[in-house]
Write a structure and sequence with these properties.
mainly beta; seven-stranded antiparallel sheet; about 10% helix
Length: about 300
Amino acid sequence: MRTIPALLVTIGLAAALTGCASSGAGTTPSSCAAPGAASEAVTASGAFGKQPKVSIPSGLTTKGTQVSVLKQGDGRQIGNGTPVLIEYTLVDGATGDVAQTSGYSGKTAPITAGASNYGALGASLECAHVGDRLAVALPKSALSSSSTGSTETPSKKTEDAVVAVIDVKKAFDARATGTPQLAGDKMPAVVLAPSGAPGITIPSWNAPSSDETHLLRKGSGATLTAKDTAVIKYTAVTWGTEGSEASVAGSSWTDGSGGQTVPLAKGQIQEGIRKAILGHRVGDQVLAIVHQQGTAYAYVIDVLGKMSS
């Protein structure tokens, strides 16, 4: 499974985009990024999901980030926190040359709309629909600031543009959608924020000596097999000995990454985690007690989708 290449990710990290992409129909919500002269000047021919021929005016400039819908889809609307499969072509606005593409092979990992690791790219997907082809124009200072490691917000002045033509191919759920279940006795307590992010409270007693899995939400989607790659979100906390303080070991809800892809073939990931996900359904939320290098961890894993290899 390929990840989004570093160049496009750093563009997203460096450029600021407040709000989300225009739906292309009706009144644009105030929270959505508006189209502008730069994004509206972009044309892209070719079939959806295939590499397009992108045309832009010579020396294209932009003031801030702009988003236009070149082709309107009729699929589900994308909200903050939604993992999305895309294909993209990145074009230098000054020269019109293609700088980078996703490869259009269907092997690109999903990115999460609104996740901070994807900056402007992730934010530009919010409020779009599956099936949309988007033109995203952002200032070229996004490139220069990311290459120098600068964390400064790009200038608001008019600059040379970088253009991304994005085909929105598929969206997964932002959180586990299954029916709530009761966890086993003596397990950590789990409460959910409005976004779906879990909070985990470790009890005062010691963790079980072996790995355990408990279903917190029962989904009705496809069952995950060893041939699949799961799309998940997770939070993990340590479960120490009696009297020791638990700590958050990792969380894709808060670290800016959003949805994660996890290959389920044997030997690809830690076996306790693999077993905790394997055989579950899309929509499940799983509480897994996993022992790793002498430490017990409590994982809450939302199973959001699957990608066949």
